[in-house]
Specification:
Lipocalin, alpha+beta
Length: about 140
């Protein structure tokens, strides 16, 4: 009986040790929104404008180019086509607790206030008002 108790205690102790080891994980790396949005080339995947959806292929067919956006840590933004031609440069900055980002300096003094609905290391979705029309933009990393 003493041996059974001893073995049972050992099994319980071993189980607790293994459970403790399995429960311990490396500290999770917290990625800031700045890290998520900058240092990448974002390629447009789709646009919804006035309730009409356009895929990347439809945009390329209509516009003849794939549009890309790069936001940098220094607050600059560059829009180009897939050939790297026709660059448009401006500034960007987070607004409202990093739930929005403002782009300015493109096409003169105009600016867009973009409300982020999805931001991961590979996906960026946001919307902004284009006049009276709501545009929903979806980008993926290149």
């Amino acid at each position: 009986m003493k041996t059974i108790k001893s073995n049972f205690v050992r099994i319980i102790a071993l189980g607790l040790i293994l459970f403790s080891i399995a429960s311990c994980s490396k500290d999770e790396v917290v990625t800031s929104k700045t890290d998520l949005i900058t240092g990448k080339t974002w390629v447009i995947q789709s646009v919804n404008m006035s309730g009409m959806d356009f895929t990347a292929a439809e945009i390329i067919a209509q516009e003849g180019a794939e549009f890309q956006m790069s936001l940098k840590v220094d607050g600059t933004v560059t829009y180009t086509d897939n050939m790297g031609l026709n660059p448009m440069n401006g500034k960007w900055q987070f607004q409202v607790n990093e739930t929005q980002f403002k782009v300015s300096g493109i096409d003169g003094a105009n600016s867009d206030l973009n409300t982020i609905t999805l931001l991961t290391s590979t996906d960026l979705e946001f919307w902004h008002m284009d006049g009276s029309d709501k545009m929903i933009m979806h980008y993926k990393t290149k």
